[in-house]
Amino acid sequence: MKYSLLSATLVATLGLVACEKTVTTNPSAPVAVVVPGPAGPAGATGAQGSDGASGTTVQVGVPGPAGATGRTGATGNDGATGATGAEGSKGNTGKSGDTVVIVPAEK
Question: Structure pTM?
Fold first, then answer.
């Protein structure tokens, strides 16, 4: 079974390669090369043309005067006074009495 599948694959590959078209290019037609002949005598120089008319001068604009300074705005209203905060609860008064200190035993 191994060899028959391998053989079929090989035959199919060779069959596909054999059907491939090759691309051929046709040679182009020869191109005629034009070779220039000898130069002729130089022609006469033409007369000089007349000068063109001068352009008009344009005056550059001058900026206008600065505008007046604006007035200062009115002062805004004061805000309302805030409410007084709630009073916190009072703590207990401390007790007075003797202080006991315990000293660890020496080793």
Answer: 0.20
